[in-house]
Amino acid sequence: MGSSERKAAAGPGLTRREFIAVTAGVAAGSLPLAASAAGAGAEESAVRGQYDVIVIGGGFCGITAARECRRAGLRALVLEARNRLGGRTFTADFGGQTVDLGGSWVHWSQPHVWTEVRRSGLPLAESLGAAADRLILHTSRHDVVTLSYARSGVQLDRAVAAYIGDGRSALPLPFDPFGSDSYHKLDGITSAERLAGLKGLTALDRDYVDGYFASQGHNYSDQFAWLEMVRWYCLSGHNLADMSDMSGRFHFRDGTAALLNFILAEGKPEVRLATPVRRVSEAAAGVTVITARGEELATRLVVSTVPLNVLKDIEWQPALPEAKLAASRETHAGHGTKLHVLVEGDYGNLGGIAPSHNAINSLMTERVVAGNTHLIGFGPDPELLDVNDTDSVQQAVRLFLPDAKVKRSLGYQWTLDPYSQGTWCTLRPHMWSRYLRELQQPTARIIFASADWANGFRGFIDGAIEQGMEAGRRVRELLT
Q1: Fewer Cβ neighbours under 10 Å: the N or C end of the chain?
Q2: What's residue 153's pLDDT?
């Protein structure tokens, strides 16, 4: 792994303070965002002395919210703690190939992001392994079984359908998380508990279902709610093929940064990077945002896109409702690893699955490059795998490909990033019932928007844009 790639990620054992030091030059290895758009609006705001809205966070949610505010003629400032935009999406270079270390795939079942795909005209590319020729299953008995998708696909689809079962009846309207009260009865069940209670599945079926959903829940199967996976299944059309396409097939050829640049260029808000927020003080007349450097910024409204796991680390005056803080202290379950791996030789178009206690739960071919195979993998726990250590990654990849020789690997340890403290949001048992409605609620002058509590594709780029659009609508209603 090259020096620029090492700057892009940190391995197990680092503290968050050490992580910040290691990743101080992270923007050098990432793809640039539109500098002209990032600076627009600054002169106008400086002259008038106060902002209409300050957006905390420069991911897809924040940049979308800022665009919607600017469209209404409002003075908008985006404060981003990191030295780059993108939030939990992150476009970088991997041996001359454009990759995403966080975020990636989009699908036409996701209405908010797909609208932007069509409007922008940005080209898409396909991850080959989403439609793999063969499945390599590392079983709970530590055997390696190779199956033909053409011959085993129906069986696997039935196993997943059994796992979902009558859960879909709790979500008759998947984009309305409160459209039925039935979800209360199912919200306390973990994925592992659901699988353990099923009868009639073969051992291979169980290993496949466990590993497949662990890669989606991005943690061990006893850590995330079964209802979260039911939600994904319902949103994507009630079948395994569409769910796999939705979560892992089509991505931006030039990375998620291409779409972020498009939205940023349309809105042209003022953007300040490397500006963490320490305190937000709300009063009847307006809001004061105090940065980590002690700068005080006045605004009429705030849109907070701070991730769920980070809400607790900002000082809010007056204090946030206890449910918001309790949810943040509990943290969502998205905790795992994502890695890009280049292995010697052409392994063709494959998909791999291993049960949730393994270092990698899901592995698939992204592309074949100059006779070598670029793989993408997901695991449940960064403590099981240093995504940037060749020996560690090679050992994990050999769960599926026993003779694999890893040439290069790259990932980003999102759990150590103090401004994410996790990956995409999958809720733990009971979090939906206890916290989701409160997480969506604004205060008088602060609108809380995040993919972590989106109505539809929670945890996805689509959910981030949904929340950014909704925040922009609320700001316009209050200020125009």
Answers
A1: C
A2: 85
